Each structure stands twice: as C-alpha cells, then as structure tokens.
Amino acid sequence: MIEDTIAAIATPIGEGALAVIRLSGENALTIAAECFKPIGNSSFSPTKADTHTLHYGKIVSGEREIDEVLISVMLAPRTFTRENVVEITCHGGMVASRSVLQAVLSAGARSAEPGEFTRRAFINGRIDLAQAEAVSDVIQAHTDLALAAANEQLGGKLSQRINHLRDDLMHTLAHIEAHIDFPDEDISPDTMAQLKGRLEAAVAFIEELLATADEGRILRRGIRAVIVGRPNSGKSSLLNQLLGHDRAIVATTAGTTRDTIEETANIRGIPVVFIDTAGLREATNEVEAEGIRRSHDSISRAELILHVIDASEALTEEDRLYLEQFAIRKRVIIANKMDLSRILEFEEECVETSATQGIGIEALKDAIRDKVWSGEIQADMLPAMINARHQDALVRAQEGVKQSLHILGPDAPLELVAADLRIATNAVGEVVGKTSTEDLLDSIFSQFCIGK
Ligand SMILES: Nc1nc2c(ncn2[C@@H]2O[C@H](COP(=O)(O)OP(=O)(O)OP(=O)(O)O)[C@@H](O)[C@H]2O)c(=O)[nH]1
Ligand SMILES: [Mg+2]
C-alpha cells in the first residue's frame, strides 16, 4: 500500500497564465483543506466537497494569503491514480506556483518523483505498463501521427494484442504442463499438430509486432536528415522551402553556410530534424574547414542523406565521389535549379526541384517519407508501434517460442519445452508490466517529467 500523499507542479516551469499543482494520496483532501480557504456559498473545503467538483477560494499559509485559485476535488477510485486527487489551478509563473506547492508540502505532502503519478496509476491497476509509457509518448509527440499512435497505445490497443498473445502462450503452456503431470498419456499426433500450429502462429504474430519497431522509433524520436552537396547547389534554399520559412541565409556566394543549422519540421506526419551544412569542397580558410568537418560529422550521424546537385551544371569529379560514397546510405538525390536550362546528365533516380520557384517540394516530401517508412503508414498499424523496450522483450519472447517449437515433438522432454514457453510468456508479460521488477519501473518512470 502506498500511504504518503505526493504533490508537484504539473504544468511547465515558466511564465504562463495558469499553473496546476497536483496532489494525490490518501490525505490529499485533508492536506488541501489545511491550505485552502473557500470563498462564497458554493465553494467548500475539500473534505466536505462532493467528488468531481470545482471550488473557488484562496491558498493560505497560516495567516498569509498566497494566491487566488480554483481547486478540483476528485475522490478515489475514479481518478488518474485511483487515489484521492486534488488539483489546484493557480496563477502561472514561478513564484505563484512554487508558493502554492510549498504550502501543500508544509501541510504534509511529499514532493513527487518524476512520473510518480503515472507510476501510481500503474501500481493501482488503472493502466498497464505499455499504457503508462504511452502517457509520456502523448506528452512528447511532435506530430499528429505520433500523437494518434500514442493515444491508441494509451487506449490499450497494444496491450490488448499483447494480452491476447500472452493468454495464448499460457494456454499452450498449461496444456504441456498437464502432460508433464500425467506422463503416461502421450500427446496425440493431432494435439501435437495443434500445439505446434499455435506456437507457429505466435512466432508469426510476434514478427508482425517486431516489424513496427522501426516506425515506432521514428514516430517517437523522429529522424535526422542531413542536406549535403557542393557549395551553391541550393541546400539552404531547399531547407527554407521544407521548413516553410527563411531559416538559413541564402546567397550567390559559394560557401555561404559555415556552421550546421538544425531545425525540425513535420514531414507527412514524421518529425524530421533537417541539418543544413557547409557545402563540401576543398576549404578556402580555417572557418570553412571547420564547417566542412562539421558537415562530415552530421553526415555520419544522420539517418537520411539529402544530396543536392545543381542541375544547371555538369557533374564534377567531387559530385561523383560523394554520389558513390553515399550509395550505401539511405539517401534521396535532388536535382535542384530545374528552372534553369539543364546541363546535368544523370542516370540515377532523383527528385527534380527548383528551390527558388518552390517546385518539386511536395514530391521531395513524399520521397523523404517513402525512404523513411518501410511500408505505407496504415491506420491499423498505429495501435502497435512498439518501442525499444517492447522490442527487446518481444525478441526474447520469440526466441523462447522458437526454441520450444524446435524441441517439441514425439518423446520431447516436455519440461524443457515448458521452460522455454515460460521464458517467452514472462517476456511478453514484461511489455504490459505483468512481470516487472522495481528496477524496470524505476528506469521507465524516471524518464517522465515531474508532475506526470
Ligand atoms: N535559379 C535557381 N537558383 C537557385 C535555386 N536554388 C538556389 N538557387 C540560388 O543559388 C544560390 C545558392 O543558394 P543557397 O541555398 O545559398 O545554396 P547552398 O547550397 O546553401 O550554398 P552554400 O551554403 O554556399 O554551400 C542562391 O543565389 C540561390 O538563390 C533554384 O532552384 N533555381
Ligand atoms: Mg547554404
């Protein structure tokens, strides 16, 4: 049982119109009552208030008035944490919110750890672990698509699939264990075929889930796309077009961009960090040399290369060198300046653009999306965008099932089959937190912000 009552500022630090201080725990009502003075006939002390009601009044510390607030009172169990919850909406800004937090701490609440509210929601059984993780995905979503995926996971869509898989494995495991208990009864060939069929289906299902890992990672973290090419090819102009505003300086002088410029944009629902770089050539001075060194550094760290070639000129030896060098990487070749008369002769597939005229930009966005997603983003894939932790657990689960399949057969040592299936079942359970350790919970929830 969790006995203490926790409190934290749940809104971002900084100046805002309002801030929310959240309290959760058995004593949330009495603690809030100690620092809240209701004003007017329809406002009540939290200890006398009905559940899910709003009250107007002042936060006080002894005699001192701290802020004018509205408090919401929510009684267990119909709350986010399934505990008594009071949310105090006060004026924004550092001083007001900190003073209100201080008042509830003085009245007996403890400062919450990062993610502790969500952790309580998990421990009290309101959400499972995959859903708890989705809470932080919702907060951190950079695009509508990422938000949609996170909301599906929060709603339990991934959990349903995982629970279904786990039930299925446990069912098979129970069947096999029954035969261990009654060794005289052989598993009939029919039953054996059925068991194998179920396990094979589980392997295939896990494979489908694993296939969403790349997309899941991209949606959560986005990708880094570096814009490279010869000086003056139009890299900065293209960056500005992709962002929809003039972020980078564009000039006719070759070698305009010296330092790398990073900016995030939403490309067809994918958060993409674009990195504009200094044009690749023999440096003419020290600053440019450092710029070019940074270009190479960005190239090595990017997931995607956007290689810009000036279509109004012939390919140079250097262009060829880089075309060859980037061939092993995920890349999009862009023939820019298509509004000018074309000199470039080129065999490879490329996107044709004119950065100054804004032509070909939509096609470029499509090309970026197509390179990044292994398949189409289908609506029915959204619910199952697994994260790195899920991936790790499911890989182990799949190994366990494969191993058990490998052994299973007439005269198979059923204890060994069962042991492998137990490993698999536990690994699947980790995804939703049915099998989880304190360490695992610590590592997950410590990544949350305080107040969540
Ligand atoms: N006609 C035409 N000119 C372009 C196009 N794209 C860029 N330019 C011009 O080419 C020159 C260089 O453009 P930038 O975007 O600064 O090129 P860059 O690759 O960033 O150059 P560096 O930063 O020097 O490496 C500018 O004068 C642009 O206006 C295009 O599609 N058509
Ligand atoms: Mg530039």
How would you describe the overall organization of this protein?
The structure is a single chain. This protein has 452 residues and is of the alpha/beta class. Helices cover 44% and strands 17% of the residues. It has helices at residues 28-35, 94-106, 116-123, 129-140, 144-154, 157-181, 189-210, 213-221, 235-243, 286-301, 317-325, 361-372, 388-407, 414-432, 438-445, and strands at 6-9, 18-24, 36-38, 53-61, 64-74, 85-91, 110-111, 223-229, 261-267, 270-276, 304-310, 331-336, 351-352. The radius of gyration is 29 Å and the shape is flat. The two termini are 20 Å apart. The mean pLDDT is 91. The structure holds guanosine-5'-triphosphate and magnesium ion. Magnesium ion binds next to α9.
The oligomeric state is single chain
Q: What is the mean predicted local confidence, pLDDT? A: 91
The portion of residues forming beta strands comes to 15-25%
Strand order in the largest sheet: 3-4-5-6-2-1-7
Brief descriptors of the model:
alpha/beta, six-stranded mixed beta sheet, binds magnesium ion, binds guanosine-5'-triphosphate, 15 helices, 452 residues, seven-stranded mixed beta sheet
Please sum up the structure shown:
This protein has about 450 residues and is an alpha/beta fold. It has 15 helices and 13 strands.
